[in-house]
């Protein structure tokens, strides 16, 4: 599992860890029931506080991406199809918002955007 911390980006470290692990789970890079590194080992590898890794793991568990077995560690939860669908819908909405902003800067009409979409579907 690869996690990179950007100290210059302004995003909290726990959020960077949470997002990267979540994305690796969604993309299938980390598989169901696969153990995550212990909070202490991850903190040591990243040279951060254990409290930070705990917060990231807690967020992942709260969202249903991992489960914890006391004295054993954190493991990747079974993929919740509805949860994955919601994640993808959120991404689509984000992309659509960016498209709307770009279209406005180019003075495109709604119909222009729809036409572009249909052309893209045909390719």
Q: What distinguishing features does this structure have?
A:
single chain, 123 residues, mainly alpha, two-stranded antiparallel ribbon, 59% helix, 7% strand, elongated
Structure explained in plain terms:
- Helices cover 59% and strands 7% of the residues.
- It is mainly alpha-helical.
- Helix 1 crosses helix 3 and helix 2 packs across helix 3 (50-62).
- A hairpin with a 3-residue loop joins strand 1 (66-69) and strand 2 (73-76).
- The chain starts with 12 loop residues before the first helix and ends with a helix.
- It has a two-stranded antiparallel sheet.
- It has helices spanning 13-26, 39-46, 50-62, 81-105, 110-122, and strands at residues 66-69, 73-76.
- The protein is elongated, with a radius of gyration of 19 Å.
- The protein is built from five helices and two strands.
């Amino acid at each position: 599992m690869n996690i990179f911390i950007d100290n210059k980006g302004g995003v909290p470290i726990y959020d960077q860890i949470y997002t990267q692990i979540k994305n690796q789970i969604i993309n299938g890079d980390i598989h169901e029931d696969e153990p995550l590194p212990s909070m202490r080992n991850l903190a040591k590898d990243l040279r951060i506080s254990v409290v930070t890794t705990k917060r990231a793991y807690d967020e992942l568990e709260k969202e249903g991406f991992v489960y914890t077995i006391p004295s054993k560690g954190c493991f990747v939860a079974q993929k919740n199809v509805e949860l994955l669908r919601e994640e993808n819908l959120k991404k689509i909405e984000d992309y659509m918002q960016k498209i709307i902003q770009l279209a406005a800067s180019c003075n495109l009409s709604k119909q222009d955007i729809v036409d572009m979409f249909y052309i893209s579907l045909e390719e």
